[in-house]
Amino acid sequence: EDAIARNEAGRLGSVTAEIEFCRQYEREVHALLDAMEAGEIPLRVTHNDTKLNNVLLDRQTGRGVCVIDLDTVMPGLVGHDFGDAIRFGANYVAEDSREYEKAGCNMELFSAFTRGFLSQTQDTLTADEIRTLPLSVFTLAVELASRFLDDYLLGNVYFRTEYPEHNLVRTRCQLNMARDVMKKMGEMERIIRECVQG
To answer: How many other CB atoms are there within 10 angstroms of residue 179's CB atom?
Structure first.
């Protein structure tokens, strides 16, 4: 909202649809933090940048050896890590693809990641944490979209960009991911139930 009010780069007129989408789903995006504040889900230690490029892989076996880039570790919600991993790793396109209209959640990758994730974590997670995992994917996509949009409105001062509209492309990619996740929420919930029931 501050970046909108300031409109430092004079780009506000070109992003009204993106701003409206973020405002329309503000309540949903706050749901995870609201649940934490209500004591429904616990605060945990989280990585907060759960991307494949932050996993060190063994060159011979291809297996994960350890998680790197630990400067982002801090208190957070398990959904932050889960949602960010899916939003980044299960998207049909790269997060800055100029073909952002093709962005969306690859359910085969979602299912594989979820099975692996819950096979290692479900005994330590609460039922409410597990229940909120699909919403976390939507939440993180909209959160990143708003961060990219914020930077675009400010003139690309935070994220490294390669061209003036780079952050706008990233914004649109994340919003298309979020739209697709909303359509697939029921399927995500079903996959998670199946993983938990074993």
So the answer is: 18
Per-residue pLDDT of the chain (198 residues; tens, 9 = 90+): 999 999 999 999 999 999 999 999 999 999 999 999 999 999 999 887 877 788 889 999 998 888 888 888 889 999 999 999 999 999 999 999 999 999 999 999 999 999 999 999 999 999 999 999 999 999 999 999 999 999 999 999 999 999 999 999 999 999 999 999 999 999 999 999 999 987
Cβ atoms < 10 Å from Cβ of 47: 19
Q: To the nearest 10°, the Cα dihedral for 71, 68, 104, 160?
A: 50
List the beta bridge partners of residue 91. 105
Q: What are the tokens at 21? A: 């989408």
Buried/exposed 57-78: b ≥16 CB within 10 Å, e otherwise: eeeeeeeeeeeeeeeeeeebbb
- The Cβ of residue 33 has, within 10 Å, a number of other Cβ atoms equal to 14
Contact in structure between 188 and 134 (CB atoms under 8 Å) = yes
Give pTM, 2 decimals.
Answer: 0.90
